[in-house]
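Before any further analysis, we paired sequence with structure tokens, yielding the entry below:
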Amino acid sequence: MLTQILAVGLGGMTGASLRFLAKSLPALTSSALGHTLAVNLTGSLAIGIMWVILARLNASPIWSLLLITGLLGGYTTCSAFALDCLVLISRGEWGTALAYWSATAIGSPAACALGWWITSRIIKF
């Protein structure tokens, strides 16, 4: 159990640090919503890719804990997404909140599926 906790913790620390660094990218600094959406979409894409790679390698479950639960779970920002939606609603920006929620709720699973689909066709073993 300690090994699993350490794997998730190490991955989560790294993922959260990468999310923090993503804020400094010029294309993402103009909007907090754009930043959160970009992180969620790229993280979801990466989860789809990693899922296929780990399955094809028949990797030990510890790798899933490190890379998917920890790293990519720490990188993506569902809690920040939820807060962003509530802040928009509290400001009366219902249209923006609905558009943002829709883009994230549809885009993140779609990005994950795209990562899975592309990677499962590229990696054949």
Notes: The radius of gyration is 16 Å. The mean pLDDT is 90.
